[in-house]
Design brief:
Blueprint: E1 3-4, E2 7-8, E3 26-32, H1 48-63, H2 68-73, E4 77-87, E5 96-103, E6 110-119, E7 122-134
């Protein structure tokens, strides 16, 4: 039996927000490119795109009814195990972008997300992440049903 701090995984209390809706599996967030996210040519640095993806992933969890800091306090942690990013076109200072994140149906210890970043209707970046569920000791554990 999988345990978190001596409690069965399926019995762990994860605080939910009042507006919880675990059927939500995608989200879009707006991002305006900030000056410090750019190189001297005003092109967004490649390391910034994964940050925007994480922002969308965190907001998706929140929209589903869970605050990530509360999830961590309950002894559940998520770590990125794999990330793929395909840069199609550059983004520039002050561009208005949309980051779309979608969670794939999942079971076990991992959650997979797919991302599309657009400027107006133009796709400029695509990405995928696999995050794994860990306990406080950093050991893999099944994702609690409430979050899945």
């Amino acid at each position: 039996m999988d345990m978190i701090d001596g409690t069965r995984v399926d019995e762990v209390e994860i605080p939910e927000q009042e507006s919880a809706d675990s059927s939500i599996n995608e989200i879009e967030i707006d991002v305006r490119v900030r000056y410090p996210e750019c190189d001297p040519m005003n092109v967004v640095h490649h390391a910034v795109y994964p940050v925007w993806m994480e922002m969308a992933r965190t907001e998706l969890l929140r929209k589903r009814g869970f605050n990530y800091s509360d999830v961590e306090k309950s002894g559940i942690f998520f770590a990125v195990a794999n990330m793929n990013v395909k840069y199609l076109k550059p983004a520039f200072y002050d561009d208005e972008l949309m980051v779309h994140a979608k969670v794939k149906p999942t079971a076990g210890v991992k959650i997979e997300h797919i991302y599309t970043i657009t400027r107006k209707d133009e796709v400029i970046c695509r990405g995928e992440t696999t995050v794994v569920c860990l306990n406080r000791d950093g050991k893999l554990q099944p994702i609690p049903e409430a979050i899945r």
